[in-house]
Amino acid sequence: MRFDTKIGIVVRRDLAVWQKLNVTAFLASAVAGGAPEVIGERYEDGSGTSYLPMFRQPVLVYAADPAGLARVRARAVERGLAVAVYIEEMFKTGNDVDNRAAVRAVTAEEMPLVGLAVHGPKNAVDKTLKGLPLHP
Q1: What was the pLDDT predicted at 136?
Q2: Residue 32 included in any domain
Q3: Predicted TM-score (pTM) of this structure
Q4: Is residue 80 part of a domain?
Q5: For residue 111, what is the DSSP state?
């Protein structure tokens, strides 16, 4: 199936495994919260038990170094794509209010990115993520 939009998550390749998974989960939740149209219908098993809905399209996860993350963030903003960011300081906070304050405390150019998500038209996302390898 072909989709008009694309969801890409980019994670800094040198993070610990638990950090990569944590960052990916938080960034995926940002796309789901910010673009509800990407969410499908609820699931139901043969016994009638209902389950939460998921993305209706694939989510591709890429790896990058800090310079690659900064480049992707700049390209995504320039193209007007929906962007979510996760910065180093967010590993030290324990709540959403402190996370937002940590992001607000740095300029876009100084942002110590460990991950980001982009969502938008497939062509624009492909151009934004061009050159990045899929995460191993």
Answers
A1: 85
A2: yes
A3: 0.94
A4: yes
A5: -
